[in-house]
């Protein structure tokens, strides 16, 4: 017994000491504040911003404001659309990255990654300049008659969607590529050999083969998209507002913090759904894999 | 490449479109920074005047905000390099329930939208009545940087041959010598890559800082944001962005070279 | 016998699983001692307990009478050549080899000259300044050996040092390893799952199965006189004949009835009783195969059968011969002095004969051990 304790204890202690710094920090500055959002949404607003004394349901009652369902629905709709387009672009790019030789691959990868390393604000801002009513891009389109004299490219839902796709497409490409790298491309040849056209082979063999990467891509794109703030703020205008803008307005304009907390809680619930879905999927898969491994070894 | 084009015309076309899409606005922005026209509606000839303006007294607070960003970035990345590396070690070494929870804590900040992290920390600091100063911003940055460093080091640890640690002990190194002479040098590329990522994310962050900071304390992205509100500042932002882009390209290229030679030797 | 390195009742469990069960044996100074057994039988676990990476649950390990069971690895007078080399990828070959001396805080000049000597011993002088990923697998192997040997350990532990190399290189390095052993005179504990490797290099072999030491002896002892069906089948191919003792003729010989074959003569090194069940291991190369009956000889067993399969193996031919309901393997070398005799072929009626003392009575027989044989005896019905 004492023999046992002597052996397990140092190991256990080492684990605690190496876990504590990061876990402690994230518990205090990430987990607790996140839960605090929910708690503080039940507070009354303070007279000069901040939170008041006691408890109140006012913030949640105010969620009934008819503009919110519209904004929430727009947030979900735009995010889903952006995710779909990003995946649609990510699949062929990931495929090509997986197929190309080492040199081409490293160049392509660099090209995909560099925007990811550049300042996000600047990249969004670049679109604002590009789509600007007096910018050359719009002028050119107008002079070629592609769009009417009065069509505005900026400050609407389409601009938000466009820039979201632009900003998040690397997040779709990279996980799909990571899966494609492990994909056995001989399977495609096999499918062709068995009579599938190249498009069908792509759909029936490659896409299921990289489904893990696609799942990761969905999470990596959908969640930040749902929480978008800068993009609608810079290129959305009033008709392109998303839930993030509403949160910021409550904090910076009305200084109604409980109201902002209630909105943030709603956003949290909406974003939690895809994460839980991904986790469940992951778990199901790892259980299936575990079973298979068990069978093989016995 | 040419054989790829022949065999997968659709994929090559889609990739070309995606890359064009990724770089088109950036190219326009770079070109506009050299455009004599203020609003960039038409090309009015080459000019360096926006760069001159950027380096003149007019733009003094841009450079001040850059300095603030750099200080926060360095502190946040160094702290998160230490915490993240230790975290990765624990995650890799132990297979316990504690580590499952630990991994959840590391993973969630990466997927959580910035705005939620920003508002939650803002509410946290307001509730505790903490002054939302430079330190509050740095704490917020460390919080989102730890996870990235941890995952970068964890990736490196996954192809780390654990036997090398045994080999060092076998050859007479004690625990501490093993860490200093074998473990840290071998993990260095992962730690550095994680640190660089953390630094970039810190320098890049707008949303979280925006919510967490009190009055004053404008980091570079906040300064840029306030400038975007004034159309007449557009060309200065273009010039600044071009410089930042050049810097990013150079450092990404350098990192690639660094990691390539490291893994080659 | 000088008891240089002693395992005394060493047991290691992982949860409920017993990886090593009450291992007790002694290794002599200067010998090459091989631990041989199939994958997962606990060889590495045994070695790691000696190196100090895991602590036994029970038992002691002694070197020259000193109990080292509780010493941390860095304080043990042993060094390891790891299964996958475990060279430090960030250090040059020189620094890899010099690592142990540096940890021992030896002066730089001494480290340099020792490393030079080692580089020369393993023939890598030109490669000293390269990093490990710039040299071939065989060279890595030699660096790993040099890195361990330079510390002059009292025992060198080698964990399947050649497993990652191809056959030709393996054979060459095996010879080199033997030369190095002759040169440095250090005790080697050599772990392998390859029986030819163990036979070729070691003075003595310990055969392990599922955590248990089954037999310890010289390669010849283990091959010629396996104690049980596992050792017999794991070391080379064999025929198992099972039956009952009929009469115990004298001290050394008995008669036995083999199922479906008939009565044969047995050599027994332990007394047998009539009626006792026995299992016999009979190596294929001990059986002579001819087309006519051999001359009668009391020391010889002879049985008649029909050739069912003929497998040409280059240096020899293997025959599968049906005798009653048994299939017996016999081998014949391709030496040409019997050229006048026609070689048996498929469906021929042949005679098998062997000397009674070439069959080895096993103390233990397990049916599942027959699966270790290269071709199980009753492949086809
Ligand atoms: N740390 C551990 N925890 C649980 N089980 C272990 C551990 N280490 C080894 N084992 C188990 O103990 C048994 C013996 O393992 P060991 O590594 O000693 O085998 P081995 O004889 O060296 O095999 P190989 O030839 O494949 O290297 C195996 O079944 C293995 O699964
Ligand atoms: Mg082993």
Report the helical percentage of chain A: over 70%
Mean pLDDT of chain B: 87
Q: The CATH topology of the largest domain in chain B, please? A: MetI-like fold
Number of strands of chain A: 0
The hetero molecules present are: adenosine-5'-triphosphate, magnesium ion
The CATH architecture of chain A can be given as: Orthogonal Bundle
The CATH class label of the largest domain in chain B is Mainly Alpha
The CATH class assignment of chain A is Mainly Alpha
Sequence-ordered SSE layout with sheet pairings:
The complex is a heterotrimer of chains A (298), B (265) and C (381).
Chain A: H1 2-40, H2 58-62, H3 67-99, H4 102-117, H5 120-131, H6 136-143, H7 157-182, H8 186-193, H9 198-209, H10 211-226, H11 230-236, H12 243-254, H13 257-297
Chain B: H1 2-7, H2 9-33, H3 49-54, H4 60-93, H5 97-111, H6 114-128, H7 134-158, H8 163-170, H9 175-204, H10 207-212, H11 220-228, H12 234-264
Chain C: E1 5-14, E2 17-27, E3 32-36, H1 43-51, E4 58-63, E5 66-67, E6 78-81, H2 93-103, H3 108-121, H4 137-149, E7 155-159, H5 167-184, E8 187-192, H6 195-201, E9 204-209, E10 212-217, H7 219-224, H8 229-234, E11 239-247, E12 253-258, E13 262-267, E14 277-282, E15 288-290, E16 300-312, E17 316-323, E18 326-333, E19 349-355, E20 360-362
Parallel strand pairs in C: 3-8, 3-9, 6-7, 7-8
Antiparallel strand pairs in C: 1-2, 1-4, 4-5, 9-10, 11-12, 11-14, 12-13, 14-20, 15-19, 16-17, 16-19, 17-18
Describe this structure in words.
- The complex is a heterotrimer of chains A (298), B (265) and C (381).
- The longest helix of chain A has 41 residues, at 257-297.
- Chain A has 13 helices and no strands.
- Chain A has 298 residues and is mainly α.
- Chain B has helices at 2-7, 9-33, 49-54, 60-93, 97-111, 114-128, 134-158, 163-170, 175-204, 207-212, 220-228, 234-264.
- In chain B, helix 4 crosses helix 9 (175-204), helix 4 (60-93) crosses helix 11 and helix 8 (163-170) packs antiparallel against helix 9.
- Chain B is mainly α.
- The two termini of chain B are 28 Å apart.
- Chain B has 2 domains: 2-32; 52-264, MetI-like (MetI-like fold).
- Chain C has 381 residues and is of the alpha+beta class.
- In chain C, 22% of the residues lie in helices and 34% in strands.
- Chain C contains 8 helices and 20 strands.
- The longest helix of chain C has 18 residues, at 167-184.
- The termini of chain C are far apart.
- The interface between A and B is large, with 84 and 88 residues.
- Residues 14, 19, 37, 39-45, 193 of chain C line the site of adenosine-5'-triphosphate.
